[in-house]
Amino acid sequence: MERTENIALEFLKDSHLEILTTFELIEDQKKFTTMPNELLTNADGQYSIVITHKNKPVGFFLLHTTSRVMKYTENKHALLLTSLSINNKEQGKGYASIGMSMLTPFIKSAFPMYNEIVLAVNHKNAPAEKLYKKVGFVDTAKRIEGPLGEQLIMSLKVT
């Protein structure tokens, strides 16, 4: 596994675009997320975050501060995490675990008014659920129906 000083969470930059538009996932993973090249236009309250290794994009996700967050929690100081993906050729190197473990300090620095991160993970997506639990997310016992069936709502307190 790579040392964490080579891995960072960064807001989307123009220099990331070329690699992000070439991200690939296996078919089984594509059904659970949206590819970065479909999400590279920032909307109000939606922030594109890039996981980099030695300044090269290896992963991507979105953080939301919009009213959409309230579908998952009643906490007005929560962020919603969506669309996590790690480029297929970069998988298995620990980037998802390390990137997600960096969420708390990143949120404290970039979004200091927020104290929770919530997400929905399809109950059929066991690898993602395992990853989120590994980095400290807990199952809230709340469920919603998603496009592919039941989704578990998970939460990470930012303290």
UniProtKB/TrEMBL annotation:
SUPFAM superfamilies (UniProt xref): Acyl-CoA N-acyltransferases (Nat)
Domain N-acetyltransferase: 1-159
Stated name of the protein: GNAT family N-acetyltransferase
Organism: Alkalicoccobacillus plakortidis
